[in-house]
Amino acid sequence: MRIGDLPHVLEVQAQAYGEVMLESEATLASRLTLSPSTCWVAVDAQAPEHEACVAGYLFTHPWHLAAPPPLDTVLHTLPEAPDCWYVHDMALAPRTRGAGVADRLYAAALTAAQALGLSASALVAVQRSQGFWARFGYAAVLDVSPQIAAKLAGYGNGAVFMTRTL
């Protein structure tokens, strides 16, 4: 992903989430700026000329397993000693769902994360997406700390903290 992709990423985000769960361009740019090797876009070469060619995106970055960042928060630095690969957000343009785009995005980012030497991954599943993330090996953490529970509240009803071993 490149900074120039962000306007198209924001279009995909709006298509995927509607009015809820939208994050600012500054929030997403901060993740891309801090960890460009772990943020990806899928390009749809078959997209009609009037539509963006970004078919989906995936923002990830090194982080601390026990401290997911709050939703829609600009990050200024990454931790000095990260212990996990944090999967911040994946969204697909509706026209590409079911075409394997999510699998390819995740595989590319996973390879980059493994090159960082991290042994765990974490994410916050929103909008009943636990089953989707379970396909990639994530499991819900049922007994979260009060700090994680407080952050989950900011992600909306039904947000679930999930982890996996890399």
Structural commentary:
It comes from Pandoraea vervacti. InterPro entries: Acyl_CoA_acyltransferase, GNAT_dom. Residues 1-166 form the N-acetyltransferase domain. The protein has 166 residues and is of the alpha+beta class. Helices cover 30% and strands 23% of the residues. It has one domain (3-165): Gcn5-related N-acetyltransferase (GNAT) (Aminopeptidase, 3-Layer(aba) Sandwich), CATH 3.40.630.30. The chain has a 6-stranded mixed beta sheet with strand order 1-2-3-4-6-5, sandwiched between helices. It is globular, with a radius of gyration of 15 Å. The two termini are 23 Å apart.
Total discrete domains: 1
Q: How many H/I helices?
A: 5
User: Which superfamily, in CATH terms, is the homologous superfamily?
Assistant: Gcn5-related N-acetyltransferase (GNAT)
Placed side by side, the strands forming the largest sheet appear as 1-2-3-4-6-5
| Highest-level CATH class | Alpha Beta
Derived structural class: alpha+beta
Let me know the average pLDDT. Answer: 91
What is the second-level CATH architecture?
Answer: 3-Layer(aba) Sandwich
Gyration radius, rounded:
15 Å
SSE string, helix = H, strand = E? HHEEEHEHEHE
- What is the number of E strands? 6
Q: Which percent bin holds the helix content? A: 25-40%
N-end to C-end Cα span:
23 Å
Pfam family, one: Acetyltransf_1
Protein name: N-acetyltransferase domain-containing protein
Domain N-acetyltransferase: 1-166
Organism: Pandoraea vervacti
Compact description:
By secondary structure, the chain is α+β, with helices and mostly antiparallel strands. It has helices spanning 6-17, 25-34, 101-115, 130-134, 146-153, and strands spanning 39-43, 54-63, 84-92, 120-125, 139-140, 160-165.
